Amino acid sequence: MKAQRKPDSGGVGEALSRAWRGTLRRAVMPLGDRLLGQRMMARLRFLEQAQWWDRDRLLSERDRLLAELIAVSYREVPFYRELWDGHGIKPEDITTASDLAKLPVVTKDMLREGYPARTVRPTGQRTHEECSSGSTGRPFCVQEDAYTAGWYRASFMLALQWSGWRIGDPQLQMGMTPQRSRGRKAKDLFLRCHYVSAYDLRDAALDAHLERIDRSELRHVWGYPSAVYLLARRATETGWCRELDAVVTWGDTLFPHFRKTIESAFRTRVFDTYG
Question: Does residue 137 sit within a domain?
């Protein structure tokens, strides 16, 4: 199976893609924010501007937000207030990042013991539980509200943009939730996400993914390093040849030989977001 990337003509197809990207940013995603109460796009716009601030302004904003975080944690979270009181630490002792070394080490087990009654602060918003995948051990769970979701999703969007991806660019995503909920299906549709299972790694499945990249002219692949590595290895084995714009990995360790194989097969750079 051999494939060559078609040159970008910059014609009708690109014009339609550009129009859809604009529609997403100006209308579709802001509407989703209003429905979910997340304000992700407003926060993304802030981050897109803040990334160009000079170093002094960035450090000043970092320390301001750190002081605010410490004060809120002490005032509203029993776990941290009791722990810091036991070590003689007050919020005013932590004003810059260099002061973080004064804080006692907190382990996941300590947080689990107090979860959720003593480690979760009331925000006045509805919350739901989110857990890590457990790929490197026991899953770790937290309570999430819309305010928090808006910030971390905006941050992740910015990180994806650093790889060269733009909101609305189609991509293949190898993930662990192949049974898509109605909401996830809508997200996949609007963001032009071709979602495939990271569990089914048989040759036939990998061949189908490579064919989909070809057929849909996808330029971005995202997912778990081990799954993307096997996709890249299969591409090499079959003589599949198509240059991608970028690969983004998350959720597990990107070993050096994973990176080497992926970058060689897809002739692009891997942007790892794990850790």
Answer: no
134-191 pLDDT per residue, tens = 767 889 999 999 999 999 999 999 999 999 999 999 999 999 999 999 999 999 999 9
Looking at the structure of the chain, the number of domains it has is 1
Asked whether residue 256 is assigned to any structural domain, the reply reads yes
Quick check: pTM over 0.85? yes
Domain assignment present for 208: yes
Q: What is the CA radius of gyration of the chain?
A: 22
State the Cα–Cα distance between residues 240 and 55, nearest whole angstrom. Answer: 44
State the Cα–Cα distance between residues 63 and 83, nearest whole angstrom: 22
First vs last C-alpha separation in the chain: 35
The CATH number that applies at residue 247 is 3.40.50.980
User: How many C-beta atoms lie closer than 10 Å to residue 216's C-beta?
Assistant: 13
Residue 57 in domain = no
Burial, 92: exposed, middle or buried (Cβ in 10 Å; 0-12, 13-18, 19+)?
A: exposed
Q: DSSP states of 73-91 as a string?
A: HHHH-HHHHHHHHHTT--G
